[in-house]
């Protein structure tokens, strides 16, 4: 654990240091999936310092592990992207769970994280020898939807034609399980050639401000064994994300809401076009308080070091 030191020793001023690890999430191959930085003891860091560290890593997200407010929980975790703190994100929860479980901090294979959106339960996946492989998390909230977006607006954001957007199952729709996204189905060919048009995203935000400042757009196409997806949020300095747990949990919950089924399982491939292939295993089920969803994936360790402040 960190004990920051700032007192001089002779003529040398010792700067406090904070340990970090990076992992690739939703992959079994190093340099695939979605990279995540985990500052394993963030005590003593200010919000501004956490934001600066996250910007320095320049990854989709960076997490900071802190003591829990409720001792029954494993940790309080703060999540930052390049420009802001986030209430919930899927790959940071899976990756942080993996890192802490590797340190033996789980209790009977379970961790619970306090985040702004609620409490996230993390179930650790181990092999027969006890080695940590990955984790499964449950999104902290039930499905909410915030209305539909016209297909032409979505198409413009992705530099596509309006007829590239498939509306037979649902029109483009805002949905959330803690973090909101606009979801739209496309053809396979359209998904492959999609690219974010920043000016169109700004127009979309002005037209549909309820989506939120980053106006995150999650496109997907159906495949024989699941779904392939891409997520763009250029207004949040995220041109494209290689694997988005919070979006895909909301997607599987949204798809369940369109059926009469009690639950559905879905395999999502993402990051293909970026050269960072990712695989996410999704489950959505109907519960007494609404539709809930889970996401699971494997992780691979990459880097370890210290941050000097």
Describe the structure.
The chain has 309 residues and is of the alpha+beta class. The protein has 2 domains: 8-139 and 298-308, Diaminopimelate Epimerase, Chain A, domain 1 (Roll), CATH 3.10.310; 144-288, Diaminopimelate Epimerase, Chain A, domain 1 (Roll). It is 19% helix and 42% strand. The protein has an 8-stranded mixed β-barrel. Strand 3 (17-25) and strand 4 (34-39) form a beta hairpin. Helix 3 (151-157) runs antiparallel to helix 5 (198-207). The radius of gyration is 20 Å and the shape is globular. The two termini are 16 Å apart.
Question: Helix and strand layout, with pairings?
Answer:
Blueprint: E1 8-9, E2 12-13, E3 17-25, E4 34-39, H1 47-57, E5 61-66, E6 75-80, E7 85-86, H2 90-102, E8 110-115, E9 118-126, E10 132-138, E11 144-148, H3 151-157, E12 165-166, E13 173-176, E14 180-186, H4 188-193, H5 198-207, E15 217-223, E16 226-233, E17 238-241, H6 245-257, E18 263-270, E19 278-287, E20 290-308
Parallel strand pairs: 4-5, 6-8, 14-15, 16-18
Antiparallel strand pairs: 1-2, 3-4, 3-20, 5-6, 6-7, 8-9, 9-10, 10-20, 11-13, 12-14, 13-14, 15-16, 16-17, 18-19, 19-20
Helix pairs in contact: 3-5
